[in-house]
Amino acid sequence: MSDHLRETRRRRTFAIISHPDAGKTTLTEKLLLFGGAIQMAGSVKGRKAARHATSDWMALEKERGISVTSSVMQFPYEGRIVNLLDTPGHADFGEDTYRVLTAVDSALMVIDVAKGVEERTIKLMEVCRLRDTPIMSFINKLDREGKNPIDLLDEVESVLGIQCAPVTWPIGMGQRLKGVVHLITGEVHLFEPGRNFTRQDSTIFASLDDPELAKRIGEAALAEVRDELELVQGASHPFDLEAYLAGKQTPVFFGSAVNNFGVQLLLDFFVEHAPSPKPRATTGREVDPVEETFSGFVFKIQANMDPQHRDRVAFLRVCSGRFDAGMKVMQTRTGKEVKLANALTFMASDRDIVETAYPGDVIGIHNHGTISIGDSFSQGETLAFTGIPNFAPELFRRARLRDPLKLKQLQKGLAQLSEEGATQFFRPLLGNELILGAVGSLQFDVVAYRLKDEYNVDAQFDQAQIATARWVHCDDPKKLDEFKEKNIMNLALDAAGELVYLAPTRVNLQLAQERAPAVRFSATREHA
Ligand code: GDP
């Protein structure tokens, strides 16, 4: 097997999806711990809180703190290379999450045993379904009382519309939690708070029939789990690799992340069965990861990752070939050749200079405003990856400066922050207003705060009379000119210089569409 094929096959690139508070951060930390990427529990959380402990904007900053410090975490485990991509926690950052999910090959869903399937999990699941992303599930907080596990699996099946295949099964719950049975190997792993860090640090019985086990957990607990398993085996599905890979079935694990419990069983199963990088669609053809020539796309941009260095980093997922430091690639959108020097890799929390990277890996490229979300890079052939859209914002505000002399900084700040994709920045063709669009209102607060913090600009955002935006295209230049002339009041350019129609009302949009049948109005902008 060639190096390239071997390296590609051992990549596991995934994201954790969950409703806030289900335990995503804790589980992330435990996975890093088992992967040897961090030494001590508490460091992911510590970073999350420490960065701006004095800020009035604690809540916001904590949100940002997570995504800033741990956007991508890579660690080796059992001969595999695991790439864990972080998804932002707050509901307002849905678009950002959406795009991260376009860059992974599978997902891990965390569910709180007491709360069951929550609203945000449902939304994230819908996104995964668009690409049939394979999903494994971890039912967390078994050390607390929660829903009956059988009912919970029913809930997942009916609410999320995916088959459940329990791989581990809990023995008791809350105070009575004794351990889990592995339904495929038959092994019983005992729950021992403060332990379970490694296999050596766990008490494991070969099967439920081990006479020593009955002595340890008692006949009653044993009888109860046997009854339950009979029910489960009648009602649920056995693990089916193909159904999992097709996104139709989710293997389910039970545990308690904060107690390390059940996490290693999950991770072992994950690295064994989760998919390695898959082929990806471009406008012309599918690109297979084993192809020798390099290609990839940018799914995320983060400004000012390190406030000391004021850098902006574009996160590129490698889709085929091999990345070598200093290589020259073509940026599809501009047709320009770019030298990728000093790309970053993300070994857990540290950012190191990367020499080589393979399909499934994410590299960070320094961006000086020339790279946008959705940009593709390739060698030789021009390839444009599809499916990484910008969505039309739903909320609009007009930026107002307290100090008019700061206009230049405001423009720069808005343009740079909008590169991250959470907000979109529009300059109307007429006048010199600056309009900001977002999908959630929290974004305006974040932008106002960051403008002050990072660009020293005091700006306020006022309501703008805009209901929605559409990107407009027309193949006939004459008709486009006509359209522009008639609608100049409502037209603007987005940060990438694309023409956008800003509609004051939905009715207005409808009329504009009816009056200009040659013009296409699009609610998403695919970068190509
Ligand atoms: P996130 O918002 O999904 O990232 O959730 P966190 O990892 O921050 O966890 C939310 C809260 O649940 C924190 O207080 C954790 O300590 C707690 N937690 C996480 N895992 C467990 C668990 O297994 N058992 C219990 N009892 N609490 C947990």
From TrEMBL:
<dbReference type="Pfam" id="PF22042">
    <property type="entry name" value="EF-G_D2"/>
</dbReference>
<dbReference type="GO" id="GO:0003924">
    <property type="term" value="F:GTPase activity"/>
</dbReference>
<dbReference type="Pfam" id="PF16658">
    <property type="entry name" value="RF3_C"/>
</dbReference>
<feature type="binding site">
    <location>
        <begin position="18"/>
        <end position="25"/>
    </location>
    <ligand>
        <name>GTP</name>
    </ligand>
</feature>
<dbReference type="InterPro" id="IPR027417">
    <property type="entry name" value="P-loop_NTPase"/>
</dbReference>
<dbReference type="GO" id="GO:0005829">
    <property type="term" value="C:cytosol"/>
</dbReference>
<comment type="similarity">
    <text>Belongs to the TRAFAC class translation factor GTPase superfamily. Classic translation factor GTPase family. PrfC subfamily.</text>
</comment>
<dbReference type="InterPro" id="IPR009000">
    <property type="entry name" value="Transl_B-barrel_sf"/>
</dbReference>
<dbReference type="Pfam" id="PF00009">
    <property type="entry name" value="GTP_EFTU"/>
</dbReference>
<protein>
    <recommendedName>
        <fullName>Peptide chain release factor 3</fullName>
    </recommendedName>
</protein>
<comment type="function">
    <text>Increases the formation of ribosomal termination complexes and stimulates activities of RF-1 and RF-2. It binds guanine nucleotides and has strong preference for UGA stop codons. It may interact directly with the ribosome. The stimulation of RF-1 and RF-2 is significantly reduced by GTP and GDP, but not by GMP.</text>
</comment>
<keyword id="KW-0648">Protein biosynthesis</keyword>
<dbReference type="InterPro" id="IPR031157">
    <property type="entry name" value="G_TR_CS"/>
</dbReference>
<dbReference type="GO" id="GO:0006449">
    <property type="term" value="P:regulation of translational termination"/>
</dbReference>
<dbReference type="InterPro" id="IPR035647">
    <property type="entry name" value="EFG_III/V"/>
</dbReference>
<dbReference type="GO" id="GO:0097216">
    <property type="term" value="F:guanosine tetraphosphate binding"/>
</dbReference>
<dbReference type="InterPro" id="IPR005225">
    <property type="entry name" value="Small_GTP-bd"/>
</dbReference>
<dbReference type="InterPro" id="IPR041732">
    <property type="entry name" value="RF3_GTP-bd"/>
</dbReference>
<keyword id="KW-0547">Nucleotide-binding</keyword>
<keyword id="KW-0963">Cytoplasm</keyword>
<feature type="domain" description="Tr-type G">
    <location>
        <begin position="9"/>
        <end position="278"/>
    </location>
</feature>
<dbReference type="InterPro" id="IPR000795">
    <property type="entry name" value="T_Tr_GTP-bd_dom"/>
</dbReference>
<dbReference type="InterPro" id="IPR032090">
    <property type="entry name" value="RF3_C"/>
</dbReference>
<dbReference type="GO" id="GO:0016150">
    <property type="term" value="F:translation release factor activity, codon nonspecific"/>
</dbReference>
<feature type="binding site">
    <location>
        <begin position="140"/>
        <end position="143"/>
    </location>
    <ligand>
        <name>GTP</name>
    </ligand>
</feature>
<keyword id="KW-0342">GTP-binding</keyword>
<feature type="binding site">
    <location>
        <begin position="86"/>
        <end position="90"/>
    </location>
    <ligand>
        <name>GTP</name>
    </ligand>
</feature>
<dbReference type="InterPro" id="IPR004548">
    <property type="entry name" value="PrfC"/>
</dbReference>
<dbReference type="GO" id="GO:0016149">
    <property type="term" value="F:translation release factor activity, codon specific"/>
</dbReference>
<dbReference type="GO" id="GO:0005525">
    <property type="term" value="F:GTP binding"/>
</dbReference>
<dbReference type="InterPro" id="IPR053905">
    <property type="entry name" value="EF-G-like_DII"/>
</dbReference>
<dbReference type="InterPro" id="IPR038467">
    <property type="entry name" value="RF3_dom_3_sf"/>
</dbReference>
